[in-house]
Amino acid sequence: MNFLSHFYFDRNNANCYHVLGTVLPDLLKNADKSAMLHPQKHSYPNAPTRYLYDGWMKHLEVDRHFHNSDFFKHHSHQLKLHLRPAITGSPVKPFFLGHIALELILDNLLLTTQQISASNFYDHLQNCDDNVIREFLVISGFKNPEVFIQFFQRFKTDRYLHTYAQTEKVAYALKRICMRIWNNPFLPEQEEAINQVIINYRELLLPEFLSVFDEIDTLIKDSGSQ
To answer: Which structural domain, as residue segments, surrounds residue 178?
Structure first.
């Protein structure tokens, strides 16, 4: 799941460090593609770093349930099939595009149906002390926490997740993600075709998209996670 979908499960949590922890694995990967942390192998000495740890583990649990769900398997496959004709000749793999497109559409739907607020999400991140984040990263074995801190400051300043509320911006976000792996992944006409697929598939998902969030929420509660 993407940032805002992870936030959905803790949208009522008042602890900013826990909320940051729920998106920290993905933020860290965006800051440094080589980062590979295993916080469960370490001990955290104070409450803020433990909240970050708890959020991190919640992220892993949510992703595990999501990727094992019938919802994900079905809709990522269907999106792959819909998107494949649109990207003929592109180096981007259709299964990758289907996976990421589904996650971005879910973020869009959460925003446009007012299930969450991107401003509230950013407020939580803004309230986190950089020194606490540095401490967590150093304990977890990340060698250069300043790389992340600098990225994190730009992420909070840019606030680009607000644009996910505009359906036509979802295709642009998808292109930007693909550009981390492939140079010039799409021609202009392919971008337009991708945009139309996303607009159409969003309408298809609208009546049922919350079902996967309800399913995951139930699984988390049954497992005893907070």
So the answer is: 3-216
